[in-house]
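Archive entry. Fields below.
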Amino acid sequence: MAVARQTLIRRGVRHRDVMERTVESVLFACAASAVAVTTAIVVVLLVESAGFFSHVSIVDFLTDTMWTPLFAEARYGILPLLCGTVLAAAVALTVAVPVGVMVAVYLSEFAPVKVRETVKPLLEMLEGVPTVVYGYFALLFVTPLLQNIIPDLPGFNVLSPGIVIGIMIVPYVGSVSEDAMRAVPQALREASYACGATRLQTTLRVVMPAATSGIAAAFVLGIARATGETMVVAIAAGQQPNLTFDPTQPAATITAYIVQVALGDLPHGSIGYQSIFAAGLVLLLITLLFNILAHVLRMRFREAY
Amino acid sequence: MASLSPPLAIDASHATVADIRANVAQRRRWDLVFAVLGLLATSIGVVTLLALFIDLVMDGYQRLTPDFFLSFPSRRASEAGILSAWVGTCLVMLVTAVVGVPLAVSAGLYLEEYAPRNWLTTVIEINVSNLAAVPSIVYGLLALGLFVYALGFGQSILSAGLTLALMIMPIIVVATREAVRAVPHTIREAAYAVGATRWQVTRDHVLPYSIPGIATGVIIGLARAIGETAPLITIGALTFIAYLPNPPLTTTPPFVNFDWLWSGFTVLPIQMFNWVSRPGTAFHANAAAAGIVIVVLTLLMNGFAIFLRYRLRKRINW
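PREDICTED_STRUCTURE:
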């Protein structure tokens, strides 16, 4: 009797152990899929770009000032696309950084708890609006609005999508900066208040200097976000590669070019098809670079206290 | 802002009480000015959200008829509808949820409950945070190279669903980890003390407590996926679809049907993009109407997720 029960228990334990190991392996496989996805991204981009660079020299790619891969006489210089990307990001950051930092300062240092609890969810909602809707808003609301101020502004321009992207990433820039300011120890604020400083003085001379690297990280992450943004510029900026630093002109960004090519029906394996992977590779490198920079900056502010 | 200090500074040795009072009043004024500026900056976001929604409603409300939801796209703006688009969105989301949610929640559970502290775990963590930063269109390129051509899934609902599943994975992983981390260690220790195994602890104690937090992440992730356009354009979503995929449920045995996975598709944001890009204002009204549908859908989902999180924060009482 006792022996039989022991066998049963032992069998149960064995079954349980097998279950344990199976579950752990499955969970591990799921987590490891993140590595697989990253690897797949890099491999796919590199393989297709390799095909592209066997036709186009890297020097031409980086120095030619024309990007006309779909013309009969194709030229493959990434500069006009880079230029459009930088321009759109610059306009976006001009809007997002001052506003985002003001929002962060207000929410972390000035706002009463009740205001903060109402405003933060609303800002999160702003982040949740799909980008294609922002594109519509840029093309059919902001551009006509701007045309009242700048009468000869073309219907497609970089200014309007840039501003809209800027407003779109305000919640993001704001919340990263706010995290940095929240990380400043309360004791520093109290010391400042104890000396008779106002909230403004405490913010400007104690909190902001202590949170500088975090705010810088917000700035850098904002650049990465704006660079990768696709639909707003694809809709409102005109999809015309244009080597210009004038935001009132139409231009194409790297992302807008990828969308434009994908909408047409390019045969698999053609050089036009491969060119979007080369463009994607450049985009990935840019965003990766800025994210690493932001990571370094954030590590610095975390170590401070 | 050191430039504020000179006019505010006073010479302490000669200051009268009146000087000091004036100085304090001035500092208070600046403080107030800044508070108002902050409030203005904060309200820019809210005002934009309102302007955007009002703009959409003004442009598109007349098109929001039952017919609009029940018609295929058409050459004539007044007859075009979003039937194939919303059906496509539902089916793509089905694939995304079925694949993405278990994958991401499992990954989050592993990293928080199982992962040993070693280099492999660090590599996985770095990869997850990198993936969160990858622009969505790059996922589209991955899917074009991998799912559409290398694996031969074609420009199908399956490819689209898998793409979005990978894209929202980091969002759900982070939410899962946060939710799981919030479960106090005493709960785990109590379960281990009565002989539970690690999986029993995770399944019966940690997971049930963290469900609301995970659900928040899942809803936000799916809302993101619903609005996503760029990666689906990259893998070749069609913009003009006048048919529906075979329905997943049938009246004859075996009652389910997976043909729809291989079907061509369009989704709401792509339909909207198509209409926005057309010259002429007739189709813009359609775009606005589709926009209303998308915005209402995503805002409802986000609103629900935010509500869930706030309720959770208030109710937790370990």
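CURATOR_NOTE: Chain B touches chain A through 92 residues (CB under 8 Å).
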